[in-house]
Task: structure prediction
Amino acid sequence: MPVSPGPFSSSAAGRMTRIVYIALAILALMHFALLFFVAWHVSWPSAVAAALSVAILFLPTRRLLSNYLPLDPFWVRAVAFFLLIAGAHLLLEHADRPEIVRTRTAFANATVITGQSDVPAIEHGVVLMDDAGVIVEVGSSQRVNVPSGYTIVDLQGKFLMPGLINAHGHLMLPGKRDPDTPMEPGSFSYPDWMAKLMIGFMNTYVGKRLIVWTMERNTQKAVRAGVTTLRAIGDPHYLDVAVRQRIRNGRTIGPRLLVAGPIICAPGGHAHQIGLVVDGPEQARATVRASLARGVDVIKIASTGGVSDSTRVGEAGELQMGFDEIAAIVEVAHDNGVLVTSHTQSTEGIKQTLRAGVDNIEHGAALDDEAVDLFINNPRALRGYSSLHPTLSMGAGLPPLTDEIRNDPAGYIVYQNGKRITEGSRSGYKTAVKHGIRLGIGTDAGLIQHGAVWKELRYFTQHAELSNSQALHIGTLATARSIGVDKITGSIEKGKSADLIILDRDPREDLSALAQPSMVIAKGVVVFP
Result:
């Protein structure tokens, strides 16, 4: 005999309870759908549990339950639904982890390009990697014996070198443009309201989940292209810190990630839409302390105007942050052993920034004698010198000036500023090579493709008298030194992390060999293929 449907079928309280139940149930299902969408590893048992919860919520199960269970069918359905959807969440969370396998491996019969400028390549080389992802021996096959317990990978004469390093990326940006391809006229400008809308969306729960997922996708694009160390210097809301932690926790596979959090900038200055605005030395100090407390690895500032958000010709490169503010930022960062890097795009901006002790200059400009001397001998820098990351990729695709660009007022401003800054950064790069200023590779990835670091190496050889071998050294160990990780990575040496790429062709002969690695190993884990 069927039981009574219970007190929730007709009373006002019962109707309100049902409304709340339906609302919470729909929110739970939407949350599961979001997590299912951004999951890297799908759990089909979790999908089945979610499907059963949907059946209980929407199909006519009330009559069936009332016929066979001596309980109030509303509560049975509600409890069953929430148990199933909670189980679906837990199953998805448990399954959404990559399989990370580290084994003792001997890479044998390879031409080993160590990344060191003063060490020749090792013919018929062997590299031993232990199960902690550390290089334990490097040398020729005549000198290195493979111990028992190692899996031997015969590379059959392929080329083994350190993974590439990119000192300048933005993980939130899509990185769709090939730097060799001319920019589309419509890409020269974007409305300020659009940036504010995006930043607001990123600060919501759904926005953060989707942006972190996007950032993880971009790190994977980079690492699959052979970039085993990536420095993210300018992403909002400290979402880059979250991505770095997910990589460290084994929730996703990616490169070694160094992060700066939001860029520190002047009121109304470059990147103020997504950055941390400071006005005065005390606020600058407090902002750096707050970023360090969030766990950043490097401090990024914008000392001058930039191209992408410029509103008048000549704004890019103008001084925006005062010397006292920069010096205050540097003081706090250096007291904590942290490097400071600066978006700087004019000669005067470079000199002011270096006088304050900044360690890396991003982009750059024409260099006079004082700027050269400050790069080489900078007493206020953390290590006594500063280095340049010229981001030549950013100006590589600048097209000729057309009527379409002239007729777009905002686009014309950005175009003219971009042309002038490109000329300045190329000039500064050539001067840096001539005078032996320390260089590093940074592409501004996000504004260009995340995996196009090898093309920056090619631009290095095109705009100055550098050999391919010298460019390879800059793209590995020299950049590791520039960003302070050379004790860990950047070269194939005993005791360093096994950050390796394997190539079918010799990159010393043709840098395009880097475009398609046959294997990428990051921190001892094969991440590609």
Summary: The longest strand covers residues 105-112.
